[in-house]
Specification:
The complex is a heterodimer. Chain A is α/β, with parallel strands linked by helices. In chain A, 27% of the residues lie in helices and 39% in strands. The N and C termini of chain A lie far apart (39 Å). The model of chain A has no long low-confidence stretch (mean pLDDT 92). Chain B has a single domain, classed as Beta-grasp domain (Ubiquitin-like (UB roll), Roll). The longest helix of chain B is centred in the first third of the chain and has 11 residues. The N and C termini of chain B lie far apart (51 Å). Classes of the chains: A alpha/beta, B alpha+beta.
């Protein structure tokens, strides 16, 4: 299961609207909680990071995050004691369903891949897929439930409290 | 030197995000890495021993594929190696939204 705060969920959908008709992409930072008693693991998103799409030759239906940018994002995660738990991208005028290209290019086993369909510039459906398996040979995408937290995030609460003290 | 392991491969390093491995070159460090953590080998290298095409390796801020000596580049104990699988994808090129998404999608 993927767990994400409403603000982050809305932010990644808005990213897809901003880059329309091109695909957006980004990284999900957080923590993975192992499942207990046969329950599934939870990829809990604490922060999303926007990334640039380097596929300027075909940005309407392809995305790629430069490895150098990924290195920086991974350093950012490490500094926050977080891990890369997934990625997101948009499908302009295309369903929120993984494509053969998405599958072929997916290599982060155990991570969540969020896809938002953006139809005529408006974000519609958002789905998440867990890349399960142990190797490139047995990997597969599984539909993944998304739990959206609507309580104020800790950062927002802290900011609110700080303002209240001023 | 320290090697940073990406999330999916930490299952093969005992959950460690960073491992310390000795070696004089990138190749030596990788050889020692896969001796210490043998399960990593199939995830990093093909059966022919080539680094898998989707596995990026950075020595500090430099992609080793673009270094003059590539994997033979000498390293210092203070250097850092980062293993980072590629991230890419995208919607299918030849199918329209209506073809793949029925009215109730």
């Amino acid at each position: 299961m993927l767990r994400i705060h409403f603000d982050d969920y809305e932010a990644l959908r808005a990213h897809g609207q901003e880059t329309y008709p091109h695909e957006c992409c980004g990284v999900l930072l957080g923590k993975t909680t192992p499942g207990e008693d046969n329950s599934e693991a939870i990829n809990h998103v604490h922060q999303i990071v926007r990334a640039g799409n380097t596929r300027t030759d075909s940005a309407h239906n392809r995305y790629n995050i430069a490895p150098g940018e990924l290195i920086k994002i991974q350093r950012q995660a490490r500094a926050l004691s977080l891990d890369i738990v997934g990625f997101y991208h948009s499908h302009p005028d295309h369903p929120a369903q993984w494509s053969p290209t998405d599958f072929a290019e997916a290599h982060w086993l155990g991570c969540s891949y969020i896809i938002t369909a953006v139809e005529q510039g408006k974000a519609v459906l958002t789905n998440s897929f867990l890349l399960s398996g142990t190797t490139e040979d047995d990997k597969k995408f599984e539909d993944e439930a998304i739990q959206i937290d609507i309580a104020p995030s800790l950062a927002a609460t802290a900011q609110h409290n700080q303002k209240g003290q001023e | 030197m320290n090697i940073h392991i990406p999330t999916p491969l930490r299952a093969y390093t005992g959950g460690l995000e960073t491992v310390s491995i000795p070696g004089a070159t990138v190749t030596e460090v990788f050889q020692q890495l896969t001796i210490t953590y043998p399960e990593l080998k199939q995830h990093l290298f093909t059966a022919e021993g080539k680094l898998r095409s989707f596995v990026n390796v950075y020595l500090n801020d430099d992609d080793i594929r673009y270094l003059e000596n590539k994997e033979a580049t000498t390293v210092q104990s203070s250097d850092e190696l980062t293993i980072i699988p590629s991230i890419a994808g995208g919607s299918s090129a030849n199918a329209s939204y209506n073809d793949l998404c029925p009215a109730n999608c």
